[in-house]
Amino acid sequence: MIRHFYVNACILNLPKAIWISIILVTVIYTLANIAYFTTVSREEVLGGAAVAVMFSKRLYGIMWWLMPIFVSLSTFGGVNGILFTTARLFYVGGREGHMPKVLSMIQIKRLTPMPAVVFMVRLIWPIIYTIGTIFLVILPLYASPVETDGVTLFLQKLFEVIPEEGKKSE
């Protein structure tokens, strides 16, 4: 009886959730782009690498550093969702015979596809994500340290140094 109710609720609510989320995400992205273009000029958008950082520097002033933090938290949330979704795909693949049958087994107490979750989490994806994140953070610091303003300013204050006068930065 409970399973029948759950299936009917999913059949009714899932299409609603899909349409609401599609519309909501479209509206939020459209409003974000409108905000970007009302604050940052077209030339800066086309020439700059991080529009959100330019936007936050103009709007938030000294608190501009919040934008990269929120972007990284959003990325972390996306990766978290992908990990859960992929574990579910492994579970269904095991149930349908496309993957090893052990992935379709359910944990007794929690009624979750524990082998699929463990298989996904223990795989290389978290390692690849961590290495990729470190690469994306460290590479710009090495490749063009002058353009990474926030880190440069932080290090200048930390080491109490200033740029040498009369020299062009390359």
TrEMBL record:
Pfam families named in the record: AA_permease_2
InterPro entries: AA/rel_permease1, AminoAcid_Transporter
UniProt-recorded name of the protein: RDD domain-containing protein
Mode of membrane association: Multi-pass membrane protein
Keyword annotations of the record: Membrane, Transmembrane, Transmembrane helix
Domain of life: Eukaryota
Record carries keyword DNA damage: no
TM stretches of this protein: 17-38, 73-93, 114-143
Protein species of origin: Tegillarca granosa (Malaysian cockle)
Localization terms from the record: Membrane
Lineage: Eukaryota, Metazoa, Spiralia, Lophotrochozoa, Mollusca
